[in-house]
Design goal:
Helix content is 39%, strand content 8%. The chain is globular and about 45 Å long. It contains four helices and two strands. The protein has helices spanning 7-10, 32-35, 41-49, 53-74, and strands spanning 82-85, 91-94. The protein has a two-stranded antiparallel ribbon. Helix 3 (41-49) packs antiparallel against helix 4 (53-74). It is mainly alpha-helical.
Length: 100
């Protein structure tokens, strides 16, 4: 999925008011089995529910990419990121801050 580098290696610093755009190739060749471990149980269930192989693969790649890009910015493992869904199905990250 990352032909030259992983996002954790290349995520530039964010300045106040910065917006960064990441593009992910959903239709390229990819070993989705390698990506499944970063998905949540709920995401794996949704992926398994897609009957069409292409939809399943695209779902896995999109969700794994989101997790891998976010991990580069928040320094939380991709597999440990937690998402909630609005009543309209829109995801949002839930960051748990642990006091030190």
């Amino acid at each position: 999925m990352w032909p030259t580098a992983r996002p954790a290696d290349v995520a530039p610093a964010l300045g106040r008011g910065d917006v960064q755009l990441w593009l992910v190739e959903l239709d390229g060749a990819c070993d989705t089995g390698r990506l499944l471990p970063v998905l949540s149980d709920a995401e794996r269930m949704v992926a398994a529910g897609h009957r069409a192989d292409e939809r399943r693969r695209r779902y896995i790649v999109a969700h794994a990419a989101l997790r891998q890009v976010l991990q580069a910015y928040v320094h939380i493992s991709a597999a440990d990121l937690v998402f909630a869904t609005s009543r309209f199905g829109k995801p949002r990250a839930v960051l748990r801050i642990h006091p030190s």
